Amino acid sequence: MRLVSLNLGLPREIMWHGTKVATSIFKRPTSGRVAVRKLNLDGDRQADLTVHGGEYKAVYCYSLTHYEYWRAELPGLELPLGIFGENFTIDDFSEDSIHIGDRFSVGSAEVTVTQPRLPCYKLGVRFQRNDMVKRFLASRRTGFYLAVEREGEVGAGDEITLSSREDNSIPVSEITRLYVAKTYNDFDVASIQNAVHLAALPESWKSHFRERIQMARV
Asked: Model confidence at 218, in pLDDT bands (50, 70, 90)?
């Protein structure tokens, strides 16, 4: 894989349905090399730290190939790189091929895949569409978040190389499917029991899945 575009943005206030909203979803491609830190990239910052950012969401990645899907879904809408709020636009990946716990080297940094993206209403703010959050999640083209294992510098054009994969790892797409599923069968329960033992999956996700299993058993 290759880092096609490195996108950064700082918090700004905009109006949405008559209310001021602080958001950092407006990212723009940047040139040169940028430091990747434990909590974000230099020149990038999250607006609401209660739901965004943190060590498990330091960097957000989205696939360039998904842009073709959205051009067909949203004809006539301009889609500049970074419009999904991603820091890394990556040339070619699917959520089926990226697994929780995958460790990658990019530039001089080392990063680990932690979770898929669950969009909030600010994606709708960026696209100026009330239906965008629902459409995004339904598409299963979620992208994924990274934790920074080793700080370093990255730039557009850098290769992204898989360093290691956890035993019994689970694709990002499967985590999303399990999250949105209304009911679980025996296969799903087994998959969840595997997921909650993945070191890279944040505790908030594990707690959610444990609660779902308990509810399914009642």
From this structure: low
